[in-house]
Amino acid sequence: MEISVTRDVFRLAEVFTISRGSRTEAKVLTVHVSDGVHRGWGECVPYARYGETLESVEAQIAGLPADVTRAALQGMLPPGAARNAVDCALWDLEAKRAGRRVWELAGLPEPGPEVTAFTLSLAEPETMEAAARRNAHRPVLKIKLGTPDDMARLEAVRRGAPDPRIIVDANEGWSAGIYADLAPHLLRLGVALVEQPLPAGEDDALIGLERPVPVCADESCHDRASLPGLRGKYDVVNIKLDKTGGLTEALALREAALAEGYGVMVGCMVGSSLAMAPATLVAQGAAYTDLDGPLLLAEDRDNALTFDEAGVHPPSAALWG
């Protein structure tokens, strides 16, 4: 089998800002696996927050044996972007060899569309209000916060979009004190969920803290090994394939999280439809879906995912799986 990696860049429709910085493009790695007859592919987004670079992830993939199997891969690479792209490419290859869809191979029901959040990037309150007004027709808005001035931003978004459910993502930007001060206002403004309010290494402060709005673990939750450390702190876990290391672990994490009583959110990095395609399978029936990456792009893959009033639709076989 041959494994190859290419770098691809997708321009964003507009500057995307979170508390850790801004970007104007999505830089991704595309992995192709071929047995000489069939060819599968997958995408990952190396993430600096987790110590990943395009170069480091390429090196991890380059170190794999050509005959790697999906089962063996789980022990050869740690959870992260490299394993994700290879795992998803191997799933795609298996589906093409079998002439069946990935959901069938995984023993899952046939997937359907899932309503997805649409993300508003961090900006000045008046800018976020205008963005909220433009997207007020969407059922769920996710807003990036994580600054000392978040209350004004949150109020502005709610003025611009009175009706949608709101997810707040602080990207580790708050302290326990800030969260406690904001929590009543989050409830008042109809916020449905708060993602990762505290830094992952400091989230013990959530133990015993009143959580009137459910709190979701993002940076604190990578794979099943993360679950014991979340007890008493979080109500929901955000499953992202670039954190779990692929669809294989993402499905296992979903099952384990639900068994332990957590709600499930399925999220994404900023990538193309190819990166979102496997995640649509994990998102089936999830409490929250945040797979809007392609909606933030100015350009996308051929045979891109369909987004409409029903939400994000599963991929066609021409795209993946």
Summarize the structure.
Helix content is 31%, strand content 22%.
Task: Give the topology.
Elements: E1 2-18, E2 21-34, E3 39-44, H1 54-62, H2 70-76, H3 81-98, H4 102-105, E4 118-120, H5 125-134, E5 140-144, H6 150-160, E6 165-169, H7 176-188, E7 191-195, E8 215-217, E9 236-239, H8 241-244, H9 247-259, E10 263-266, H10 273-282, E11 288-289, E12 307-308, E13 311-312
Parallel strand pairs: 4-5, 5-6, 6-7, 7-8, 8-9, 9-10, 10-11
Antiparallel strand pairs: 1-2, 2-3, 12-13
What characteristics describe this protein?
13 strands; 321 residues; 10 helices
The gross shape turns out to be globular
Helix content: 25-40%
Q: Could you tell me the strand content as a percent range? A: 15-25%
The main β sheet shows up as:
8 strands, parallel
The rounded Rg comes to 19 Å
Overall number of strands: 13
Mean pLDDT: 95
Which strands sit side by side, in order, in the main sheet? 4-5-6-7-8-9-10-11
Structural class: alpha/beta
**Helical run tally:** 10
Distance between the termini: 18 Å
Order of SSEs: EEEHHHHEHEHEHEEEHHEHEEE
Contiguous runs where pLDDT drops below 50 for at least 5 residues: none
Explained architecture:
The chain has 321 residues and is of the alpha/beta class. Helices cover 31% and strands 22% of the residues. The protein has helices at residues 54-62, 70-76, 81-98, 102-105, 125-134, 150-160, 176-188, 241-244, 247-259, 273-282; strands at 2-18, 21-34, 39-44, 118-120, 140-144, 165-169, 191-195, 215-217, 236-239, 263-266, 288-289, 307-308, 311-312. The chain has an 8-stranded parallel beta sheet. A 3-stranded antiparallel beta sheet has the order 1-2-3. Strands 12-13 form a two-stranded antiparallel ribbon. A hairpin with a 2-residue loop joins strand 1 (2-18) and strand 2 (21-34). The longest helix has 18 residues, at 81-98. 47% of the residues are buried. The model has no long low-confidence stretch (mean pLDDT 95).
